[in-house]
Amino acid sequence: MGFFAVACAALPAAARLPDAVDRNRDGEIVIACLGDSNTASGWQAGVDGGFPSEYGWCEQLSPLLEDSRVRVLNFGIGGATMSPNPLRSKPEIGVFLSGLEQLDYALVTEPIDVVMAAFGTNDVVLPHGGRPEDIVDYHNRAFRRARSHGLLAFVATVPPAFLNPKTGRIHRPLDAIRLTNELLRETFPRRVLLDFERNMRRQKYLDHLHMNAAGQAVRAREARRRLVALAEVTLPPAGVRALRWDGGHWRSKTKADLGDRIGMED
Fold first, then answer.
1. Is residue 185 part of a domain?
2. Would you say residue 9 lies in a domain?
3. What CATH code is carried by the domain that includes residue 53?
4. What is the pLDDT along the chain (266 residues), one digit of tens a residue?
5. Is the pTM of this model over 0.70?
6. How far apart, in whole angstroms, are the C-alpha atoms of residue 167 and residue 244?
7. How many domains does the chain have?
8. Torsion angle in degrees (nearest 10) through CA of 145, 151, 152, 154
9. Structural domain harbouring 222
């Protein structure tokens, strides 16, 4: 059995999602993956030990769910950050280098129902990256923006980074990853956190920063686990944009008063 077959065989059984996950009631469940080069797929096929685009974590998520209504879209771009990016985005070709820009682009181009944001590596390891508190602040802004549109939203922890074999170091301390993830866990409840830090050992990487197909499979399993777990709790009716929880029932509420009840409680 080949390496890719082994990676896929390790994936858990598929699960059909409840109708309420179709937030806009259009018959589709559109999942938007936002992120950096560990989310973007296709480029890995050209490097040693790489893999074709269908083995990216977003691409593995759709067959994992085995739900004909699911369409997973990958908005990830290499070099992207969650905090503002000093590099210039290229909106004319759909290249957006900050998390909020990717979210806004997804919102205006596709009828998305679910958003999964996986950033932080570039923020942490590049000299121009943001501080841990900036990363978490912009994650929170994006999360609330997604929720204000009635979407289910998930935030990923930052995966480990390893020493660059060419230089013997990384650009910024590994403690920044630890601190960012601690702040993410303090800010967001467990049910909306994709733990992309756990079980990410060096053998699941192509290099000191980028995952191989096995590492991508770990991310796909975690995304599936969290999405199914959140969907199994009582969700408000699909198609309702702003709600409040009232004694076991979902009731209409203005967007300004949106309680973020979905996912914002443990």
1. yes
2. no
3. 3.40.50.1110
4. 444 444 445 545 555 788 889 999 999 999 999 999 999 988 888 788 778 788 999 999 999 998 999 999 999 999 899 988 877 667 765 677 889 999 999 999 999 999 999 999 888 877 766 789 999 999 999 999 999 999 999 999 999 887 666 665 655 567 888 999 999 999 999 999 999 998 888 888 888 888 899 999 999 999 999 999 887 765 555 444 433 334 333 344 333 333 344 444 43
5. yes
6. 52
7. 1
8. -40
9. 17-239
